[in-house]
Amino acid sequence: SLPKFNQKQIRTTSVWGEEKQSTLMGLKICIIGSGSVGSAAGEILCKIGISNIHLMDYDKIKEHNLDRMNNVVDTDVGEFKKDVVSLNLSNSATSENFQCTTSTNSIVEENGFKEALDYDVIFCCVDRPWPRQVLNHLAYSCLIPVIDGGISFKIIKGKLVHGMFRAQTVGPERACLDCLGALNADQIQQDRDGLFDDPNYI
Question: What is the SS3 assignment for the chain?
Fold first, then answer.
């Protein structure tokens, strides 16, 4: 049976109705990346009543993450992002049966790829091209919708001209990330070669 909404979700339920709210609450959501985008996405999802969220992230919180991650403080530096975000989501969730699981797997490795197959929808919240390529492939080969988002900036002579946020869902009958211009083959190879981990290269 579908989960039942409660009064905490009444404003959300009023947008699309009780049946769709119950369907949404029953989805199993996987969030790849628990940093600035993943923590924000998770916060929104658990607030609207999503009952089952899985966080996949092997990275730890550093000082430079404190200005962008939701509900993260100085004492969280050095902790796994997924653990801190999981606790925050559990505190924010409106579903009475909320559960948040986590892992330190990577989507570009076999264990992480297989793990993601257990979910109904995947949120791509990574800033690297290689995992985005893998998730793009997963969306079409395994028929799991992947919601991807990112921010692009236009800078001329060292000055910010404008910034744009874009989100898209990829999967069958939709344009892929490559077609949308959201993937760059050269950058994917550079990421696989480890060049994105080199601060001098960046």
Answer: CCCCCCHHHHHHHHHHCHHHHHHHHCCEEEEECCCHHHHHHHHHHHHHCCCEEEEECCCECCHHHCCCCCCCCHHHCCCEHHHHHHHHHHHHCCCCCCEEEEECCCCCCHHHHHHHCCCCEEEECCCCHHHHHHHHHHHHHCCCCEEEEEEEEEEECCEEEEEEEEEEEECCCCCCCCCCCCCCHHHHHHHHCCHHHCCCCC
Is the whole model's pTM more than 0.85, yes or no?
yes
For the chain, 202 residues long, give each residue's pLDDT as a single digit of tens: 667 788 999 999 999 999 999 999 999 999 999 999 999 999 999 999 999 999 999 999 999 999 989 899 999 999 999 999 999 999 999 999 999 999 999 999 999 999 999 999 999 999 889 999 999 999 999 999 999 987 777 889 889 888 877 889 999 999 999 998 888 888 888 888 887 776 665 5
